[in-house]
Amino acid sequence: xxxxxxxxxxxxxxxxxxxxxxxxxxxxxxxxxxxxxxxxxxxxxxxxxxxxxxxxxxxxxxxxxxxxxxxxxxxxxxxxxxxxxxxx
Length: 88
What we know:
Elements: E1 2-9, E2 14-21, H1 25-39, H2 51-58, E3 66-73
Antiparallel strand pairs: 1-2, 1-3
């Protein structure tokens, strides 16, 4: 099954779109996050993470800053659920 997904990194101001082949949305989200991390690697950090950064990680936010903004199932062209993929 094909999934169209959008990721956003607020701290870096980056918006990325991907078209992923995966059986389930959770698997597609993992593959999409890996694609975003490989296309836009995080800049190297200096020193230990701050108390705030450690608290964000505990709260479930990904340390890379990427957030899955939207995921939809890719449909046949012309169907009501079809979403046109955009170049990043």
